[in-house]
Amino acid sequence: MQRCFSNSILALLLCSGTAQASDAVRVTDREAYLNIRKLVFEKIASLPPKESPINKLVIEPGHKIDGIELLPCGGVAEFWGISEATYDLVEIAGLMGEWADSLRTVGYPEDAYLPALNIVEQRYLERAEVKPLLDFDDFEKFADDQVRFVVSSIKKWRKRENSSLPQVDATDDCGAGGALPVEFRPDPPGGQIFVITEFEYELCALNNGDPTDRSKCRFWRQAKSSEYVAGWNYVQGEWASGLLKPSRMNFDDVSPGQIIMVRLHDGK
What we know:
The chain has six helices and twelve strands. The chain has two domains: 112 residues, no CATH class; 141 residues, no CATH class. Strands 1-2-12-5-8 form a five-stranded mixed sheet, with no helix packed on it. Strands 6, 7, 9, 10 and 11 form a five-stranded antiparallel sheet that branches.
């Protein structure tokens, strides 16, 4: 892929390919969640701390940690700019992954925290089946209650089994960040632009093997006049005269309102 920069206008010169459009619908079923959680956990485990979507705890050799704090907010879906289709399930998996990673890093065995995490995970999934998590009026209280439940359970285990491990507490100190709005413009005019996060692209590859087929990969979305993006995404343009191969692009350094030109390149 070739990229051109000109006066804050970012242009993509893409190659031809084939695909069909498909509407992204919100995913809530448990089987889909298991695939999402598998992929989220794999990415959390493989990414270095600086690229990780979670607050990855790093302990320097010879350094002792007296205690850690668990956050009620994950932020993985925001970090990756996940679409509404899988937003809640990615966020739930990310939160479980972050808590487990932190506790494992400071020496807690799985039997100290997994029972509580499994209960909280099911509570979140039950809510997500009803409506988007952030649409609940009591979402903040619910999230705070869940992290306190996990911490309380771990404290009881620590007191009973191994009081030499670091203390675990809950905090509500969640930072801000996430996707920013950009404007996609087709060149020549009259084309349609489609976007999918890299995570959802990989999820489609895991499920049906061909994430470029928009009739099978339901997480592609047609870009609106103001489209929120973050991190790595795939972008595709379609015109009556041609269709572009999906192109991988990093949106970490875009500015709010930046214009993204997607150009039909004839190779001449």
